[in-house]
Amino acid sequence: AGRHFNSLTAEWEMKWDPIQKSPGVFDFSGGDRIVEFAESRGMRVKGHALVWHGATPKWVEALSAPELRIAFEDHIRTVAGHYRRRVYAWDVVNEAIDDSQPGLRSTVFSRGLGPDYVAEAFRLARKADPDAQLVYNDYGGEGLNRKSNDVYALVKDLKQRGLVDGVGLQMHISAASFPAVADIQANIQRLADLGLQVNISEMDVRVKDVAGDATAKLARQRQVYRDVVAACVAVPRCEAVTLWGFTDAHSWIDSTFGADDPLLFDEQYRTKPAFFGVEDAFLRR
């Protein structure tokens, strides 16, 4: 990780649940270890994520609306303040757009604080760390579809209010079926045209459902990595590609979708064809 990458994002350790399992009791030890690892190797760090319904402690869900607002404000101020000047960016709000219908998904935050909770999170993060790039992060809107249109509308409004600096497109995809590369690049371009920085923020490429033997699966994975990363490279404001892990020995995919090999290094930490696909994209080959 330290040899092949120059940027690092915490997969879990900076989210609400691991940091504040009990009201007012903050444990930064997991996130601090990650930041220290990155700093010792000259890597920059993106914080992830200040507000996400999927990592919210049970005690938060039991709060009244006034109590929720206090906890919400205190958490963002405290966590962003703790890592001030040690992270270059924050995924401020994660996965707020609904999958099945237009608009925001129903969460403890949208129900208790109203639809403007997204903007309020960005306002609080800006005050807590004025120098950090503030990012909205989501999945399922990498190409051109209803969800990507909703993400576009959300960040356009936030940008007009001076609240957001960037967008993360997660890019959890299967090599057997994923958005058209031309649509991915067009979506990146329209977000960039708003004046936003764009990053591919959590990329992995599943191969279990690709037809053929192991060699064919890995060759297809290499091509998908190459083409998707090239779509980012082609747009000047697409500033980074982050993988959600780097070795097949440790991936959330296995526990969610079943055993797979979605990353650039195999379980023995050896480079796979996908590694060279990403290299080709960065070198514009």
Task: Characterize the structure shown.
The chain has helices at residues 16-19, 29-40, 58-61, 65-82, 108-113, 117-128, 146-160, 181-192, 214-233, 252-257, 273-282, and strands at residues 7-9, 44-51, 89-94, 133-138, 166-169, 172-174, 197-206, 238-243. With 285 residues, the protein is of the alpha/beta class. Strands 1, 2, 3, 4, 5, 6, 7 and 8 form an eight-stranded parallel beta sheet that branches. The radius of gyration is 19 Å and the shape is globular. The model has no long low-confidence stretch (mean pLDDT 98).
Task: From the structure above, extract its key features.
single chain; 285 residues; alpha/beta; eight-stranded parallel beta sheet; 11 helices; globular
Question: How much helicity do the residues have?
Answer: 40-55%
Q: Could you tell me the number of beta strands?
A: 8
For the sheet with most strands, the description reads: 8 strands, parallel
**Could you tell me the strand content as a percent range?**
15-25%
Instruction: Compute the CA-based radius of gyration.
Output: 19 Å
Which structural class fits the helix and strand makeup?
Answer: alpha/beta
Number of helices: 11
Amino-to-carboxy terminus distance: 24 Å
Mean pLDDT over the residues? 98
Instruction: Give the overall silhouette.
Output: globular
